[in-house]
Amino acid sequence: MVMKEGRGHYGQAIGILTLDTRFPRIPGDVGNASSYYFPVKLKRVVGATVKRVVTERDPALLQPFIKAAQELEKEGVRAITTSCGFLAMFQKEMTEAVKIPVFTSALMMVPLVYRMLGRHQIVGILTADSTALTKQHLQGAGIESIPLAIAGMQDKTEFATAILDDTLTIDPEKVEYEMVSVAQQLVETNPEIGALVLECANMPPYTFAIHTATGLPVFDLYDFINFVYNAVVVQERFTKGFL
Predict the structure, then answer these.
(1) What is the DSSP letter of 88?
(2) What sign does the dihedral 174-179-184-185 (CA atoms) show?
């Protein structure tokens, strides 16, 4: 077979657009390349701070994200995601700007999760900041008509200081405790929740603890990335013929 290409690098099928942050990204965080069993290509979008994306929903960031997505496409990735679920507000525009799959947010899993639940159950969402999660984000993810129960981490000291205020240190044990407490309270207040979706790309390190504490299925962006990877890098997994 003759192969022909013009790129300088190969083998990074998933491109990840990260915010312009400085907080530590621990293993399991979507922005930590060691989280994956396959190579990923990380690209920082300069100027896309937590404040501008989450709090201000700055529309001026759309073009830098589109430009970065187009660069990743030219560099050979087969699908693109981001490191912030609030970028669901740019989902439509970014998919139209490239010719490969784009999944900006873990919130895009909500319709699938909801369809898996019984008719009296709803989806619970844990988000970085529930006061900043608007109809615009829900519409971007296509979930504005799905029954939801939402809780945010904006009032939890360690999470808010490290992630939302973008500081140089983080205590994962404290964040885990805070996340579990918020998840438990959300489920206790809304017993009809059948599954949880973690909006924030910094939350996957705590998925196991949340699942253990609540006993519920928990969906996060890390698993979403793995799901998409297996769709764009398809390997033969079964022997041919009949037994």
Answers:
(1) G
(2) positive
Among 112, 83, 96, smallest CA distance to 225 is for: 83
Which tens digit of pLDDT belongs to each residue from 87-101?
Answer: 999 999 999 999 999
For residue 33 the two structure tokens come to 């390349």
Q: Tens digit of pLDDT for each residue in 61-78?
A: 999 999 999 999 999 999
Domain with CATH 3.40.50.1860 in the chain: 14-105+225-232, 106-220
Spans in the chain with pLDDT lower than 70: 1-8, 240-243
Considering the entire predicted model, what is its pTM?
A: 0.93
**How many other C-beta atoms are found inside a 10 Å radius of the C-beta of residue 202?**
30
Rounded percentage of the chain residues whose pLDDT exceeds 70: 95
Please state which CATH class domain 14-105+225-232 belongs to: alpha beta
Structure tokens at 236: 């033969």
Beta strand pairing call for 40-44 and 218-219: unpaired
Distance CA 54, CA 181 (A): 23
Q: Give the Cα separation of 102 and 50 in Å (integer).
A: 20
Ramachandran class of 76: left when φ > 0, alpha when ψ lies in -120 to 50, beta otherwise: left
Q: How far is the C-alpha of 27 from the C-alpha of 42, rounded, in Å? A: 15
**CATH class, 106-220 region:** alpha beta
Residue 5 is predicted with a pLDDT of: 63
